Amino acid sequence: MINPNYIYSVAFLFVMAIYQLRWSDLYPTLNSAILTLLFVTILVNLLIGHFSSKMNLTKSRIEELSKMNLPRLILFTLFLLLLWTIDKAFGDIPTFHIVLVTFTSFYNCYIFSRYLIEKKTTQFFVFIILFLTTAILSTYRILIFFNLITCLLTYIYIKNPFKSTIGKILVGISLIGLFYVFGVMGNNFKGHETGKVILVIGGATDEFKSSFVPDEYFWIYLYASSPLANLELNISANNSIQPSMRGYFVWGISEFLPDFISKKIFPLLGEKQLDGIQVNSALNVSTVYLRSFRYASWFGLTIMALFIAVFPIIYLYLIRNSKYFIIGLVSISTLYMFLVFDNIFAFSPLSFQLVYPFFGIYRITNRSTDDNQSYEKK
Question: pLDDT grade, residue 15 (50/70/90)?
Answer without folding.
Answer: very high
